[in-house]
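Good day; I would like, with your permission, to put a structural problem before you. What I wish to show you is a protein chain and, alongside it, a tokenised description of its three-dimensional fold. Here, with my thanks, is the record as I have it:
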Amino acid sequence: MGLKPLIETRFERALFASRWLMAPMYLGLIVALAMLVIVFGKELVYYAPKILVMDAEDVILVVLTLIDLSLAGNLLLIVLFSGYENFVSKLDIADTTDRPPWMGTVDFSGLKMKLIASIVAISGIHLLKRFMEIGEVDAEAPFNEPQLYWLVVIHLTFVVSGVLLALMDWLAAKTDKH
């Protein structure tokens, strides 16, 4: 009686095929990436004509905003490529010369590390922008000391979370696999 029952085989095939239910989510992330591109373009078009009347701090804030959007886009690409390849299907683009070398090599652990590193970088840039706005009377969204305190606490929480995730991955790599 070495053959699996027909019901079990069909169930396992259906279970394996269910990974394709994630595909619409990845399509949604592509739309989100397009939204980021539009916001990036809108910011660039808005500030580029003002460059000659902006002071250095304002230019730095604009550049930090653009970097922030770029990092968010990179984060989306990492999730799109790695998530799709790890959980849905391999991308059949091996012959493409533009294929990044990390594609197909980032496992779930590496994806977690890239995600937390991106989140820490985005949080750090946002925090830096807020620090640069200290003392500005015409800031778009003035903030107070408790808000700044919470921004620092949240950023440090992301940093500590990243360190703990890295430590857990390091410990898991050092233990014997069963």
User: Anything to note?
Assistant: The chain has one domain: 12-174. The CA atoms of residues 133 and 139 lie 7 Å apart. The chain is about 70% helix and 0% strand. Residues 56-87 form the longest helix (32 residues).
